[in-house]
TrEMBL record:
Main location: cytoplasm
Organism (species): marine sediment metagenome
Keyword Cell division assigned: no
One GO MF term attached to the UniProt entry: DNA binding
GO CC annotations on file: cytoplasm
The name this protein goes by in its record: Tyr recombinase domain-containing protein
GO annotation terms (biological process): DNA integration; DNA recombination
Upper lineage: unclassified sequences, metagenomes, ecological metagenomes
Cellular compartment(s): Cytoplasm
Transmembrane segments: none
Matches recorded under PANTHER family: PHAGE INTEGRASE-RELATED, TYROSINE RECOMBINASE XERC
Domain Tyr recombinase: 1-85
Pfam families the record matches: Phage_integrase
Keywords, comma-separated and alphabetical: DNA integration, DNA recombination
Length: 95
C-alpha cells in the first residue's frame, strides 16, 4: 500500500510531490526552494541533533549502509563547539 495517493486513488508520483512543494513555496512567497530531498536531509540532521543513534536514522531513511546515511546528516557548528567544550581536558581543571 502507498502512503500518498492522488485523487484517483493511485500512487502519487515524486514529480507530483515536487509540484505540490513548488506550489506552496510560491503561495507562501518563500524565496528559498524547499524540496522533499531537503526535508529528508533536515529530518536526518534534526534526529541526530536530538540524540538519535545513526543506525536508527539509517533505518528510518531506508538506507542499506551507514555511509549513505552520513551523506544526509549535517553537524552544526554549535554541536561541534559543545562537543569540544565537553571533552576538552582543561574543562575538568577549570571546574
Amino acid at each position: 500500500e502507498y502512503l500518498f495517493l492522488n485523487y484517483r486513488g493511485e500512487q502519487i508520483t515524486s514529480r507530483s510531490i515536487q509540484r505540490i512543494f513548488e506550489m506552496f513555496r510560491k503561495f507562501l512567497k518563500l524565496e528559498r526552494k524547499i524540496t522533499p530531498h531537503k526535508i529528508r536531509h533536515s529530518f536526518a540532521t534534526h534526529m541526530l541533533n536530538q540524540g538519535a543513534d545513526l543506525r536508527i536514522v539509517q533505518e528510518l531513511l531506508g538506507h542499506k549502509t551507514l555511509a549513505s546515511t552520513e551523506k544526509y546528516t549535517h553537524v552544526s557548528l554549535e554541536d561541534l563547539a559543545r562537543m569540544c567544550d565537553n571533552i576538552h581536558p582543561l574543562k575538568k581543571i577549570v571546574e
